[in-house]
Design goal:
Layout: H1 7-24, H2 28-34, H3 42-47, H4 66-79, H5 81-101, H6 104-115, E1 121-124, E2 140-144, E3 147-158, E4 165-171, E5 181-187, E6 193-198, E7 209-220, E8 224-225, H7 231-267, E9 269-270, E10 273-274, H8 279-311, H9 329-357, H10 369-375, H11 386-398
Parallel strand pairs: 1-4
Antiparallel strand pairs: 2-3, 3-7, 4-5, 5-8, 6-7, 9-10
Helix pairs in contact: 1-4, 4-5, 4-7, 4-8, 5-6, 5-7, 7-8, 7-9, 7-10, 8-9, 9-10, 9-11
The structure holds flavin-adenine dinucleotide.
Length: 400
């Protein structure tokens, strides 16, 4: 067993870190305070290949794997979780859904510009009445000759206002329940399709989280994504990969919160010595570092499993093979959920301790601890809450 990253992966980490510290760090608080989407960073992310990480070069992607993807999201989020989630929703939700379940024509038309970062993507599953119970989708799509007409509204769509391409789930046959929900590709500017209310959020404020609304929105038949009725089931497979990205998001923010705590503890003096001399503070740092390490091992293991499944040809149907028992598919579902659950919870604990170590200054915007504290909470909610992760893990353990 070898836990070390390859030379290329270590170099990638250094490159992303340098990029994040140079291009993102100076603007983080300005974007956060104004709750402003960092449009200017998108072309730079594209140039670095970060908007097409997990897609082959033939579709304009960087041709990297999930371990590299985890490193990139982790390093971006170590500096700004908002940029981390923008990249995550674009890569592992929107683009990946088209890449995994799209036709060759759809891949040529959509994956290529998305992976090159010429276009930005969003992915809409959640609705006001269908969150954890995403199978309760109410948005409908009805067939009219050679097109589909969508009506309804999605909520909490990351990149909703800024995306050029939206993948959205809608009911096509209510009687078939979970097997009656289909996925569609909708392009910005399609009549009847518009972003709605932008959420005013606790954290990750520079990322855009919005409603998207469909009013008699007509898309051509070829914009059906995957098999009719399989959009919900495919979404669950997409979320296996998505959870690796949210685990990486939590991991990166936890790392950032830990590092600023170490810096502060060494520099802040009370009772005539740095607070890092107090065992109470040392124990906090030791616990933070240990938990982050455990979260990193779980996250990289899930990423490594995803890469192994792809290498062994499980790509066509998401990670799931025909016989889940004989493949890594069940393990990926369980272990990406474990990574997401643990890294998300650790991020919240670590950010909490980071504020505590900073004392009153941790409660101010003069230090980064405050922003990490707000931002990390998303990790126990987005792409399935911690409670839902536990249900997914338990289902796998009990063979249900
Ligand atoms: C910043 C942000 C970005 C997001 N981005 C996207 C996106 O790009 N695309 C998208 O489709 N969605 C997105 N979401 C939506 C996110 O996935 C949902 O918020 C999440 O799945 C929870 O749904 P909900 O908010 O409706 O909560 P609810 O499902 O109403 O849950 C409320 C509470 O009840 C608990 N609960 C619910 N059901 C059960 C159960 N069976 N057992 C035990 N407890 C349960 C939950 O764990 C939670 O604590 C985003 C959300 C946020 C906040």
């Amino acid at each position: 067993m070898d836990f070390s990253l390859s030379d290329e992966q270590q170099q990638l980490r250094r490159t992303v870190r340098e990029f994040a510290e140079g291009e993102i760090a100076p603007h983080v608080m300005e974007w956060d305070e104004a709750s402003r989407f960092p449009s200017e960073i998108i072309p730079k992310l594209a140039e670095m290949g970060f908007l097409g990480v997990i897609f082959p070069e033939k579709y304009g992607g960087a041709g990297m794997g999930y371990v590299e993807y985890a490193i990139i999201i982790e390093e971006l989020s170590r500096v700004d979780g908002s940029v981390g989630i923008i990249v995550a929703a674009h890569n592992s939700l929107c683009t990946n859904h088209i890449y995994k379940f799209g036709t060759e024509a759809q891949k040529q038309k959509y994956v290529a510009p998305l992976a090159q970062g010429k276009k930005l993507g969003c992915w809409s599953l959640t609705e006001p009445e269908a969150g954890s119970d995403a199978g309760g989708t109410r948005t409908v799509a009805s067939k009219h000759n050679s097109s589909w007409v969508l009506n309804g509204a999605k909520t909490f769509t990351t990149n909703g206002h800024h995306a050029d391409v939206c993948v959205a789930m809608a009911v096509t046959d209510a009687a078939k329940k979970h097997h009656g929900i289909s996925a569609f590709i909708i392009e910005k500017g399609t009549p009847g399709f518009r972003p709605g209310k932008k959420e005013n959020k606790l954290g990750l404020r520079a990322s855009d989280t919005s409603e998207v609304v469909f009013t008699d929105c007509r898309v051509p038949a070829e914009n059906l994504l995957g098999r009719e009725g399989e959009g919900f089931v495919n979404s669950l497979q997409i979320l296996d990969g998505g959870r690796i990205s949210i685990a990486s998001l939590g991991l990166g923010m936890a790392q950032g919160a830990y590092e600023c705590s170490v810096r502060y503890a060494k520099q802040r003096k009370q009772f005539g010595k740095p607070i890092s001399d107090f065992q109470a503070i040392q124990f906090k740092l030791a616990d933070m570092a240990t938990q982050i390490d455990a979260a990193r091992l779980l996250t990289y293991r899930a990423a490594w499993l995803a890469d192994r499944a792809i290498a062994s040809g499980d790509r066509v149907s998401g990670f799931a093979a025909a016989n889940p028992e004989s493949s890594d598919a069940a393990r990926i579902t369980r272990e990406s959920s474990m990574a997401k659950l643990y890294a998300g919870e650790v991020a919240v604990r670590v950010a909490n301790e980071a504020v505590q170590i900073h004392g009153g200054y941790g409660f101010t915007k003069d230090y980064p601890a405050e922003k990490f504290y707000r931002d990390v909470k998303l990790c126990t909610i987005g792409e399935g809450t911690s409670e839902i992760q536990r249900l997914v893990i338990a289902r796998q353990l009990l063979g249900k």
